Amino acid sequence: MNKPVLEVIVVGAGHAGICVSFYLAKQGISHLVFEQGRIGEVWRSQRWDSFKMNSANKLNLLPHQAPYFEDPDAFASATEFALALENYVQQEKLPVKEYCSVLSVHIDQQRAIFRVTVSETGKQTTYLSRQLVIASGGQNRIRIPGFANQLAKSVVQLHASEYKNAHQLPDGKVLVVGSAQSGTQIAQDLLRSGRNVFLSTAQVGRIPRRYRGKDIFDWLVEIGFYDTHTDEITDPSLLRLKNPQVSGAGERGKTSSLQSLARGGAVILGRADRAEANTIFFQPNTSSNVKYADEFSRHVKQLIDEYIQKNKVFAPLADVDVDDVPDEDASCASDLTKLDLVEQAITSIIWTTGFSGDFSYLPLPVLNEEKLPSHRNGVGVVNGLYFIGLPWLRKRQSAIIMGIREDAEFIVGHIVNSSYLGRQ
After folding, report:
1. In whole angstroms, what is the distance from residue 241 CA to residue 123 CA?
2. pLDDT above 90: residue 2
3. pLDDT tops 90 at residue 178
4. Residue 140: which of 391, 353, 359 has the closest Cα?
5. E-strand spans in 250-308?
């Protein structure tokens, strides 16, 4: 007996895959969504206890999703957001299969279908579909620099995805490596717990939490900051920029800056470079990293000011935000270029060095030389294959939750218009 052929299979039930499923269901397209864990698994298992979303609740709603909190301007925890996704799936009756890991994908060229093999309830099952949407994102495989293996075994090392709170660490000081959103927020969490913290920085921008009467994201949406198309970018380095430092911690979030962390007691260091036994070495670029972050904030505020003036928008003058005041002399920067972990009583290292996507189950030629998806605007190089949930998929906003709706609608629109839909 021939197996039925689904129109579409979606891999991943985070906000991206769920949003695609909504639009597929709206079009009456038969499909299944496979999730290796629970709905929103990454949000449940790869965030620390005090984590808060960086964008307000009102910006994180999927299409037709009822507001899941009374305060639209508050910041949900990771677990709260995951539960909201779960409720959304139930509300819309979306066909999600949890604890269903995709093992491999093969392309049947003769029939023009995808053969997707999954591990389901302890056994392997193969499903067939005419089109395939990869919504597993780019954060499934942790990245830790190779020189971490050179450090003494006595030092406890965790990736940011494994860190939950300061209580899981042994007594002693903590080195946090990486100063993007996760690094600065984990450093702040450790400082609040009374830990002594060293922070190894990189070149990362920052933005104030609020500016001229609004949350910074409200301004960025209004001025069209996130509407830049990937095809418009001529400098490839812009596509690799990390998301700027900002935090949703506290009642209304807070500005995150290296100078504010230094005032809280953190020692601000340069980029971690190499290691030998109990010693880790840093590049002498701490001051330039501090100044880069400050300049990024200044530039974003200038864009907002210009928009206000050009469009004659009523907005109050900016309040003084001590955490956003630039450190013009980079006085918060330490000039240390190496640390003896034993001498400094550093017993733990948290690597907030990011993730890469795990697409090992996909066949060639759908990946490029870097083993990343080959696509344009989410449309893969193989007919019927699509990607969503990747940074700069179509626009700058593709990397954030509020940008996923437009990408999902685009992908599903392409599926509907494809000549492969409905082929027998």
Report:
1. 41
2. no
3. yes
4. 359
5. 267-269, 272-276, 279-282
pLDDT number for residue 423: 46
Of the candidates 162, 238, 235, 169, which has an alpha carbon nearest to the alpha carbon of residue 197? Answer: 169
Q: What angle do CA 285, 356, 191 make, to 5 degrees?
A: 50
Residue 419 has pLDDT above 70, yes or no: no
How many Cβ atoms from other residues are within 10 Å of residue 316's Cβ? Answer: 8
CA distance 75 to 55: 7
Closest residue by Cα to residue 417 from 4, 16, 27, 2:
27
Could you tell me which residues are beta bridge partners of residue 10?
33, 133
Please report which confidence band the pLDDT of residue 207 belongs to, taking 50, 70 and 90 as the band edges.
Answer: very high
Q: Are 15 and 84 in contact (CB under 8 A)?
A: no
The overall longest dimension of the chain from CA atoms, in Å, is: 74
What are the distances in angstroms from CA 356 to CA 3, 96, 378, 383, 390?
34, 24, 17, 25, 11
DSSP string, 87-113: HHHHHHT--EESSEEEEEEEEETTTTE
Cα torsion 230, 232, 234, 237: sign: negative
- Helical pair 15-26 and 78-92, crossing angle rounded to 10 deg: 20
Residue 406 CB contacts under 8 Å (≥ 6 apart), including other chains: 394, 395, 397
Residue 361 to residue 142: CA distance in whole angstroms = 17
Burial of 384 (0-12, 13-18, 19+ CB in 10 A): buried
3-class DSSP assignment, residue 366:
coil
CA 149 to chain centre: 26
Q: Which two tokens stand for residue 390?
A: 């990747």
Residue partners of 301: CB distance under 8 A and separation at least 6: 208, 211, 318
* pLDDT score of 108: 87
Residue with tokens 């007996």: 1
Whether the model clears a pTM of 0.85, i.e. scores above it, the answer is yes
Q: What is the mean pLDDT of residues 274-299?
A: 96
Q: Enter the tokens of residue 171.
A: 């007594």
Asked if residue 157 lies in contact with residue 351, where contact means CB atoms within 8 angstroms, the answer is yes
Average the pLDDT over 139-158 and give the result.
90
Kindly state the tokens that stand for 80: 């709260």
Most confidently modeled of 346-350, 354-358, 377-381? Answer: 346-350
